[in-house]
Amino acid sequence: MKVLITGVAGFIGARLATLLPETHDIVGIDNLNDYYDVTLKQERLRLLGKKIKFVQMDLCEKQTLEELFKQESFDIVINLAAQAGVRYSIENPDAYIQSNVVGFLNILEACRKYPVKHLLFASSSSVYGGNKKIPFSTEDNVDHPVSLYAATKKSNELMAHAYANLYQIPVTGLRFFTVYGPMGRPDMAYYGFTDKIVRGEAIQVFNHGKMMRDFTYIDDICDGIIRLLNHIPKGQIDYQVSDSWAPYKIYNIGNNNPVQLGKFIEIIEKHLGIEAKKEYLPMQDGDVVQTFADISDLSKETGYQPTTDLDEGIKKFVEWYKAYYAIGENIGKK
Ligand SMILES: NC(=O)c1ccc[n+]([C@@H]2O[C@H](COP(=O)([O-])OP(=O)(O)OC[C@H]3O[C@@H](n4cnc5c(N)ncnc54)[C@H](O)[C@@H]3O)[C@@H](O)[C@H]2O)c1
Q1: Assigned domain for 211 exists
Q2: Residue 232 CB coordination number (10 Å)
Q3: What sign does the dihedral 149-154-158-161 (CA atoms) show?
Q4: Ligand 1 center to residue 259 CA distance, Å?
Q5: Residue pLDDT, tens place only, 69-109
Q6: CATH code, domain carrying 28
Q7: Can you tell me which atom of ligand 1 is nearest the CA of 176?
Q8: What is the extent of the structural domain holding 34?
Q9: Assign residue 326 a region: left if phi > 0, alpha if psi is -120 to 50, beta otherwise?
């Protein structure tokens, strides 16, 4: 199996490449942009070593991308490259249209010209926007995004459906729910909290810590993706919202066990051995109050069941964080 992972220097891409069996021949691309610390992206690539063939490339370089597809004849394409982050999309809308919309169009076009067995792409739990009904099901309406980031992810789902219909490209969309773990994303709340707690600075807790998130450990997310690689959508006569007459299907990959932000912070404090100074603030624009994944489709069809609970997952993150930043064992001990 020849597999392309885009965004391979990213948090999920690098871990997925690590966990994919050696029988896969992996090509990875990434533009190594400086949205967050580039040395962390380089470190992920260094650890992957020769397991992948790495090509530094931007999804927006259409011609170069198509040349790569022509040369490599991919069986499976996993599109994880994107401008991530909800809050950054308020200040930098253009970056989202470029990487997430133009970049994804280039991936679809490349798959049309050089057909693949299966295209999988990252969507996001953020497409559920302000939905009130929980848990969030892939059968629910997702027409009310509350950030441009979410709108680009919903656009990806629509674009993918059109290409599945027009060109019979088998395509699976993956709505990930707040992914965390070692080598994670420094722009995400749990990472930023840890940075600040270690430095003795106050953390900003939005919505007074009452937000609920379906935090999902990185290896559970990767397990869900790997289970779907050869689970190729075929198109259904009796289709519903999450599938279609075309070879198209959307899944949630989450933990199915939402936790309050305040509880999450308590677990970080426990594993760091430091109590955080907290500044409680109201909700921020673009944020949603809660996320909660209904994973029944994925479980029924692939046997997916998340196995890492929050305590164990945060412990692993904190251990990695201390080792990576060479923080002594005495931190937090009086
Ligand atoms: N981490 C989460 O909690 C989460 C939740 C929902 C969805 N997602 C989605 O999953 C995917 C992976 O997320 P992640 O957490 O690993 O993010 P990440 O930012 O760590 O990884 C994305 C990688 O893509 C690269 N990239 C961005 N734009 C590019 C472009 N135009 N061309 C080539 N490379 C480009 C970046 O350099 C980065 O290394 C993204 O699509 C993200 O939107 C993530």
Answers
A1: no
A2: 16
A3: positive
A4: 24
A5: 999 999 999 999 999 988 898 889 999 999 999 999 999 99
A6: 3.40.50.720
A7: 6
A8: 2-178+218-253
A9: left
